[in-house]
Specification:
- 42% of the residues lie in helices and 16% in strands.
- The chain has 298 residues and is an alpha/beta fold.
- The chain has a single domain, classed as Rossmann fold.
- The chain has an 8-stranded mixed beta sheet, sandwiched between helices.
- The chain is globular, with a radius of gyration of 17 Å.
- It starts with a helix and ends with a helix.
């Protein structure tokens, strides 16, 4: 059994999922931002600065005293249809503090208004703009859930184009298979308080539309993973995306990538997101942030 804090959050998430069935998409987006606003207060030494890169809205997250030469490009989760700078800036800030870096959170376009490849185009545009002033050795990419998917497909697209890849990547409960083929989609359906198979299928339909979901820029699990940078994956044992993480890391290892997955007992989808209010999420954030610190500063 997880910590008391995790049990409280599990019940809160279940209720939010039930309440969401009567909400419009706009209301769901607002609810995600409001949840973060109510739970996560940023410290006084965190500076936020809006910017635009090649037409894509972003936000710099800078921690006083941390290196401004190293950059974590943060790609938020939300099923490609919700999530924002506001909902995820706390996690970008926490990883930056641990990694001794700053972060750039990307407000990429969302489905269904902007289906594939809109989000990928935005992430690539921002990364390419970063490369004008920052060495790839000083860039890492991080993402949770659909943002984990976007992290991976961005790197695969960069590889396709022959462009330099980032130094490292961290992924929290990444969605790697839009075909939903992992056994955990069935085996963890009752234990996952956040995601349902129906919800993930709807996310896939809204984003992929009529494209082949097995394409490597939609489902990185089916891509050529050779040459990807060192990466670490954290996933909860109680979530339907568990097999997405494990299958991807196993394939990455077979391709020669320095890849490791950690499965957290009794944890739910993107539990790391709640690192400020539950100990398991805090420990996960610390481990991933320390990995980035080592990658950046060794």
């Amino acid at each position: 059994m997880g910590s008391p804090e995790s049990q409280t959050l599990r019940e809160m998430i279940k209720k939010q999922r039930e309440d969401a069935t009567t909400k419009t998409l706009a209301e769901k987006r607002q609810a995600m931002d409001e949840m973060s606003e109510s739970l996560f207060d940023l410290e006084d030494d965190v500076k936020l600065e809006k910017t635009e890169m090649r037409g894509v809205q972003c936000e710099w997250v800078t921690i006083q005293g941390c290196s401004e030469e190293k950059v974590i490009l943060y790609l938020h989760g939300g099923g490609y249809s919700r999530g924002s700078i506001f909902s995820h800036r706390h996690l970008a800030a926490d990883l930056s503090r641990l990694a001794n870096s700053k972060a750039l959170v990307v407000d990429y376009r969302l489905a269904p208004e902007h289906p594939y490849p809109a989000a990928l185009e935005d992430a690539l545009a921002v990364y390419k703009e970063l490369l004008k002033n920052v060495s790839p050795e000083n860039i890492a990419i991080a993402g949770d859930s659909a943002g984990g998917n976007l992290t991976l497909v961005t790197m695969l697209a960069l590889k396709d184009e022959g462009l330099p890849l980032p130094k490292a990547a961290v992924l929290m409960s990444p969605w790697t298979d839009m075909k939903l083929s992992g056994k955990s989609y069935q085996e963890r359906a009752e234990s996952d308080p956040w995601l349902t198979n129906e919800a993930v299928e709807n996310f896939a339909q809204d984003y992929a539309v009529n494209h082949d979901r097995a394409h490597h820029l939609l489902s990185p699990l089916y891509g050529d993973l050779a040459g990807l940078p060192p990466l670490r994956v954290h996933v909860g044992k109680d979530e339907i995306l568990m097999d997405d993480s494990l299958a991807f890391v196993e394939k990455a290892k077979q391709a020669g990538v320095d890849a490791e997955a950690k499965v957290w007992e009794d944890m739910f989808h993107i539990f790391t997101f709640f690192g400020r209010v539950m100990p398991e999420g805090r420990k996960s954030t610390e481990e991933l942030g320390n990995f980035l610190h080592e990658a950046f500063h060794k």
